[in-house]
Write a structure and sequence with these properties.
Blueprint lengths: L5 E5 L3 H12 L3 E6 L5 H9 L3 E4 L4 H5 L3 E4 L8 H8 L4 E2 L1 H6 L5 E6 L4 H14 L4 E5 L5 H7 L4 E5 L2 H5 L8 E4 L14 H9 L10 E5 L3 H7 L7 E5 L8 E5 L2 E6 L2 E6 L8 H16 L4 H10 L8 E6 L2 E5 L6 H9 L5 E5 L12 H7 E7 L4 H7 L5 E5 L2 H11 L5 E4 L12 H13 L2
Parallel strand pairs: 1-2, 1-4, 2-3, 4-5, 6-8, 6-9, 7-8, 9-10, 10-11, 16-20, 17-18, 17-20, 18-19
Antiparallel strand pairs: 12-13, 13-14, 15-16
Helix pairs in contact: 1-7, 6-11, 6-12, 9-10, 16-17
Family: Belongs to the MurCDEF family.
Function: Cell wall formation. Catalyzes the addition of glutamate to the nucleotide precursor UDP-N-acetylmuramoyl-L-alanine (UMA).
Catalytic activity: UDP-N-acetyl-alpha-D-muramoyl-L-alanine + D-glutamate + ATP = UDP-N-acetyl-alpha-D-muramoyl-L-alanyl-D-glutamate + ADP + phosphate + H(+)
């Protein structure tokens, strides 16, 4: 019989505070610790619930007395306190792992280097429209733990990052979706791609024969990572390059989905979310919908009326014949590749921020073909200059969203597109990618 009911929560953001509330509800003695300053909103919640917390430090003795620790995905495994916990044999888990114990809802879990938010949002939109009692959580919306504590959903659509997956052990996805794997966050994976791939494939752990694994058959890293691994779940691949008998493929500009002898077809021209990357995202969402046996008219209607996601290829407006697009959510090179690939005009590209070991060479051809000038938005732009100084004639450094918007506007010509698609994290100049996107939108409105 376990008598120690102490649980420590590291990080007092959305997921940490939600986990604290659920833990308290489950009878744990909860202590929340954050190395930074806790946002007023979360501090008020913790105080209102009478949950003990500290900020600006970690009191090791208090945390090492816990029977289990729920940690924020942002805290790396290499952090000294995490090492101490592991040495003591104290389990360190994610909020998703913790909350998953207290719900028997069906889990639709979506991961991938790119397209997670779009696919998660689209899947949720379809399920909600179909009348399912569905929650949206993970990297998006209200914390999963808080919803488990306060709601009674039958299905959850969860956007899951590799950092979350690293601290998930017994949790099981009923439907696991892996969109793609491209180099990202390699600083957290000893700069080894195989470590990052292994992390992403944890989305399938604990699955059984009654579950489903949906993945992109066109993604080289996914296919390579799957070799030599066994999967208990039923596999449903999707592809725009080849014919897929069971899964999803592209035929004469139509998405064709076939699951358990049930078919769905829709022209890609009717999709609200356009571009090659969104065809993949729509296929993945469509496969989830058919696994859940939703009606074709509902799926079609949902794919036609979904609203574009903020900060992801978001059209801001047109000034003097120049189009402005906010793709601040593009925090890795591959996202920027997708953005450039979907552009049909000449581009003034705003790049830069915190570089996570980026390999810019995959952008070289597209930059040659489409980019008139590069505007750097970051404190250290050396690697961008090195990568593109022989490819484009003009590279300008800027240090604020307002300056970047102004400079890009002057460099662009009528008919061009100014594209903020940074390929980097935002923490050098901004709070997060949302803040970067918001400041850029405000700057454009002032032009």
């Amino acid at each position: 019989m376990q008598t120690n009911k102490n649980i420590a929560i590291l990080g007092a953001g959305e997921s940490g505070v939600g986990a604290a509330y659920l833990a308290q509800q489950q009878g744990f003695d909860v202590f929340v610790s954050d190395m930074g300053v806790i946002a007023p909103k979360y501090k008020e919640q913790l105080q209102g619930w009478n949950i003990r917390f500290e900020e600006g430090k970690h009191t090791d003795d208090e945390i090492l007395a816990a029977v289990e620790v729920v940690k924020s995905p942002g805290i790396p495994e290499k952090a000294p306190l995490i090492k101490k916990l592991k040495e003591k044999g104290i389990p360190v888990i994610s909020e998703i792992e913790f909350a998953g114990r207290y719900t028997d809802a069906k889990m639709v879990c979506i991961t991938g280097s790119n397209g997670k938010t779009t696919t998660t949002t689209l899947t949720y939109h379809i399920l909600k429209k179909a009348g399912l009692n569905v929650g949206l959580a993970g990297n998006i919306g209200k914390s999963f733990a808080y919803q488990v504590a306060t709601e009674k959903f039958d299905v959850y659509v969860l956007e899951i990052s590799s950092f979350m997956l690293d601290d998930m052990y017994k949790f099981k996805a009923d439907i696991a979706v892996l969109l793609n794997i491209t180099p990202d966050h390699l600083d957290r994976y000893e700069y080894k791609m195989e470590n990052y791939v292994a992390s992403k494939l944890r989305i399938t752990q604990n699955q059984t024969a009654g579950d489903y694994f949906i993945y992109c058959a066109d993604d080289a890293e996914t296919i390579k990572g799957m070799e030599g691994r066994s999967f208990a779940a039923k596999q449903l691949p999707f592809s725009i390059e080849k014919e897929i008998p069971e899964g999803a493929c592209l035929r004469n500009d139509n998405i064709v989905i076939n699951v358990n002898m049930e078919n769905f077809e829709m022209s890609i021209n009717d999709l609200a979310l356009q571009g090659k990357h969104n065809t993949y995202n729509s296929m993945a969402s469509g496969l989830v919908s058919k696994v859940l046996e939703l009606r074709n008219p509902t799926i079609r209607e949902s794919m036609m009326d979904i609203q574009p996601i903020e900060h992801r290829l978001e059209f801001i407006g047109r000034i003097s014949g120049i189009k402005f697009i906010n793709d601040s959510k593009a925090t890795n090179v591959n996202s920027t590749w997708y953005a450039l690939e979907s552009m049909s005009s000449d581009v003034v590209l705003i790049l830069g921020g915190v570089d996570k070991g980026n390999d810019y060479s995959m952008l070289t051809e597209l930059v040659k073909q489409k980019v008139r000038a590069i505007v750097c938005l970051g404190l250290d732009n050396g690697r961008i200059h090195d990568a593109f100084e022989d490819v484009v004639d003009v590279i300008v450094n800027t240090a604020s969203a307002a300056e970047a918007a102004q400079v890009a506007f002057h460099l662009a010509k009528k008919g061009d597109t100014v594209l903020l698609s940074p390929a980097c994290a935002s923490f050098d100049l901004f709070k997060n990618y949302e803040d970067r996107g918001q400041q850029f939108k405000e700057a454009v409105s002032q032009l």
